[in-house]
Write the structure tokens for this entry.
Amino acid sequence: MTDCLKMEKFFSVDDLKEEDIELLDPTLRWWMSEQGQVREEEVRVTKERMRASIRDAHDDVYIVARDRAGGSPAGVMGFGCLDARFLPYRSSTDAKAAGLLTAFISPDYRGQGLGKVLITEVFHRASTSGCTEVIWSSNPRYRETAWKFYTAMAGNHTGTIDDFFFPGSLSPVWRKSF
């Protein structure tokens, strides 16, 4: 049985709902912290963008993985309009690319294949919405967690981007074409 099929036994994936946002707060706060300090502004902006995607039929799409036992969200990922700073990383000038916006798995579920299930669904939904690829980077603070995962899901990074997350940051850029 594949990892995805095993995970479907325990989790379902569907669209983000308003009530999920506060339930995801502990996960967001866990990931959006450095040296024990929660980056409150980052959490607030992420939640606002999630709410806007629900409220305004926004171009952003967020999905959640739910624990089938309790229905609570165990992870969230989103994709949407590509930040203009990523345009040079498209496979061609004709490529219709989406940007990966958010990818956070509850620490309780890390390492169980849930990230793979969610990102595979993001790729599927982006493809069915007319995109030919998804492009993203990851904050340097996730070097030891997300970077290996993204390389496993998309192959080696296609380049690096300077100053994207903060002045002086250098981050890999991944691209998954369909």
